[in-house]
Amino acid sequence: MVRNLSVSYFSHMGVASSAITDVSFDVRPGEILGMLGESGSGKSTLAASLLRLLPPNGKIQQGRILFEGRDILQADLRALESIRGKRIALINQEPSAALHPTMRIGDQVGEVLAAHEYLSNRARRERIQQALSAVFPAETERISFSYPHQLSGGQRQRVLIAQAIACGPSLVVADEPTASLDPTTQLEVLSVFQALRQKFGLAIILITHNPSLLVGLADRVLILYAGRVAEIGPTESVLLTPMHPYTGALLRCLPPLPCNADEFNRKTMLPVISGDPPNSALLPQGCRFEPRCPDRFEACGKREPAAVSPNEGHTVCCFKFGG
After folding, report:
1. Are 85 and 160 in contact (CB under 8 A)?
2. Beta-bridge mates of residue 224
3. For a designed S-S bond to 186, which of 178, 232, 249, 265 qualifies (C-beta 3.0 to 4.6 A apart)?
């Protein structure tokens, strides 16, 4: 459960740039929560904040991150060590940078186990096999004795998933886990997340900039814009009947589905969201989307809209709905 989280980055001159502002949301047991937004919206900052893994110039200004009865922001380093990797696992978006090039895959999964549990060699080998077999059921042995350069991009991404589930966490945060993969491999990796949720009851935060990846997978979707929550609700409701103008604009920028491809050709230009994302050091006084919004009116430039729930379970921050 995240409440009123705000994060800023500071320049060497001490100038603050707001990355996350007053963000609140929760993740239910066994739920897949999709986190959607364009580049620079604060998705990766939010992921790092959940485990207090911000770079030195990043600072959490306020808020609470409640997990299994404790506030992560108040936890000491020893308590954090018992949470990071064991109870909450983070999957980075670039496996080639996360995996050690000169270690076999099985040993790298074993390193995660050794950091959190005292196991005999035999018990550790069994746990390594269990983790790898969950994502490589047909070739567990081969993958275990391989080096990262001997695997495809999709296989390396699955190795990161195996590392993430090795200690039996209750929450996995996946930061753009399919960003560097082709569409077919993307679907294969996403099916792994679905299977692991069903098998182990994992709660998953799946961060992406591609709404189509969340269809049929995520239970709910959180839309992030310029560090603020624009909209959150059930996936079908948010993606089929978006309330926030930014969500609607984002969905209109998607390439056509195969069934509608005849209406387009290679020279057809996709719609774009006019204007540029706001400068995080010079944010507008009112709604952050107001300079780019086709539906803006006078109130939008004066103050930020509050969160309202026009439909049960579907919350939006927009004056069109009384915010």
Report:
1. no
2. 229
3. 178
Confidence class for position 259, pLDDT limits 50, 70, 90: very low
Instruction: Give the tens place of pLDDT for each residue, 95-108.
Output: 888 899 999 999 99
Alpha-carbon distance of 95 to 204, in angstroms, equals 18
CA 162 to chain centre: 18
Q: Which residues pair with 35 in a beta bridge?
A: 207, 222
Mean pLDDT of 119-146: 93
Handedness of CA 267, 272, 274, 278 (dihedral sign): negative
Q: How many angstroms separate the Cα of 99 from the Cα of each of 44, 90, 114, 163, 242?
A: 19, 13, 16, 10, 38
Report how far residue 320's alpha carbon sits from residue 244's, in angstroms, rounded to the nearest whole number: 8
Return the DSSP state at 11: -
Contact 20, 6 (CB under 8 A): yes
pLDDT at 262: 53
- Under 8 Å between Cβ of 149 and 95: no
β-pairing verdict for 2-10 and 58-67: antiparallel
Question: What SS3 class is residue 251?
Answer: helix
Q: Concatenate the DSSP letters of all residues of 115-140 into one string.
A: HH----HHHHHHHHHHHHHHH-TT-H
Angle between helices 105-116 and 153-165 (to 10 degrees): 20
Tell whether the model's pLDDT for residue 180 goes beyond 90: no
Of the chain, the percentage scoring pLDDT greater than 90 comes to: 55
What is the 3 state secondary structure string of 167-205? Answer: CCCCEEEEECCCCCCCHHHHHHHHHHHHHHHHHHCCEEE
Judge contact between 186 and 174, C-beta under 8 A: no
User: In 3D, which of 276, 218, 91 has the Cα closest to residue 166?
Assistant: 91
Do residues 112 and 167 lie in contact, with contact meaning Cβ atoms separated by under 8 Å?
Answer: yes
What's the token pair of residue 269?
A: 């230009």
Helix or strand or coil: residue 95? helix
